[in-house]
């Protein structure tokens, strides 16, 4: 399956499909039409069909979608059919929130190490996951297979730390630091800039208020 030419908008919707289908499975729903799914998700039925047609369609006219099969196939498209080993860089509030999130583990993301510079936390464990000093990061990456690194450190140190883990073999960065990372073209990254997200919410609030005037 070739996915290089899939639009960013479609890729952003895939996790929502996966989440809604998971909820349907939990309620023992066997099949669903694109119309029914559209009503639940707030996406048009036409958009759903177009999105899924990028990957082969999966539906049958007059029958709709077999929920468990579609859930499994979207999971494969998202790479969730294999375990992804993840490290957390930064043991602050955000790093600890990610570590304590049961949703990551349920989706196949296994946190195998946390790294920080604070001597008060180094050596401790969170959910049986050890916090190591960042000075041991290079040796850890040489000894362990790591698929992804979550970057939850301050802006000032994020670019250099990201460059280091990439140099030591990590090819996927989940960046929570409020800065852009300039990494080699063979490295993929997902940026989660919380303040920017809040500003987008502020814009939507302002626009909604102006519409009422």
Which secondary-structure class do the elements indicate?
A: alpha/beta
| Unreliably modeled segments | none
Order of helices and strands: HEHHEHEHHEEEHEHEEH
Query: From the coordinates shown, what is the CATH architecture of the largest domain?
Result: 3-Layer(aba) Sandwich
Fraction in beta strands: 15-25%
CATH class of the largest domain equals Alpha Beta
Describe the structure.
The protein has nine helices and nine strands. Strand 7, helix 8 and strand 8 form a beta-alpha-beta unit. Helices cover 44% and strands 17% of the residues. The protein folds into two domains: 70 residues, Orthogonal Bundle (Arc Repressor Mutant, subunit A), CATH 1.10.10; 113 residues, NAD(P)-binding Rossmann-like Domain (Rossmann fold, 3-Layer(aba) Sandwich), CATH 3.40.50. It has 213 residues and is α/β, with parallel strands linked by helices.
What structural keywords apply?
Arc Repressor Mutant, subunit A; two-stranded antiparallel sheet; 2 domains; alpha/beta; 7-stranded mixed beta sheet; Rossmann fold; 213 residues; 9 helices
In short:
The chain is an alpha/beta fold and 213 residues long. It has two domains: 8-77, Orthogonal Bundle (Arc Repressor Mutant, subunit A); 84-196, NAD(P)-binding Rossmann-like Domain (Rossmann fold), CATH 3.40.50. It is 44% helix and 17% strand.
Task: Give the helices and strands, then pairings.
Elements: H1 8-26, E1 31-32, H2 34-41, H3 45-53, E2 65-66, H4 67-77, E3 84-89, H5 93-99, H6 102-106, E4 109-116, E5 125-126, E6 129-133, H7 137-143, E7 148-151, H8 158-167, E8 172-175, E9 188-191, H9 194-211
Parallel strand pairs: 3-4, 3-7, 4-6, 7-8, 8-9
Antiparallel strand pairs: 1-2, 5-6
């Amino acid at each position: 399956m070739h996915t290089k030419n899939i639009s960013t908008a479609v890729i952003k919707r895939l996790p929502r499909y996966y989440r809604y289908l998971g909820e349907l499975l939990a309620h023992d729903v066997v099949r669903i039409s694109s119309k029914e799914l559209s009503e639940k998700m707030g996406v048009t039925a036409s958009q759903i069909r177009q999105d899924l047609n990028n990957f082969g369609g999966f539906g049958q006219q007059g029958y709709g979608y077999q929920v468990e099969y579609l859930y499994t196939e979207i999971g494969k498209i998202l790479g969730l059919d294999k375990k992804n080993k993840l490290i957390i860089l930064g043991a602050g509030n955000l790093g600890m929130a990610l570590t304590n999130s049961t949703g990551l583990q349920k989706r196949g993301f296994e946190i195998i190490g946390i790294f920080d510079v604070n001597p008060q936390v180094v050596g401790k464990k969170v959910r049986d996951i050890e916090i190591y000093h960042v000075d041991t990061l290079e040796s850890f990456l040489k000894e362990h297979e790591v698929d992804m690194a979550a970057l939850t450190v301050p802006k000032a140190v994020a670019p250099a730390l990201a460059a280091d883990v990439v140099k030591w073999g990590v090819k996927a960065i989940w960046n929570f630091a409020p800065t852009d990372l300039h990494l080699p073209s063979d490295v993929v990254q997902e940026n989660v800039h919380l303040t920017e997200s809040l500003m987008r919410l502020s814009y939507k609030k302002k626009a909604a208020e102006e519409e009422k005037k």
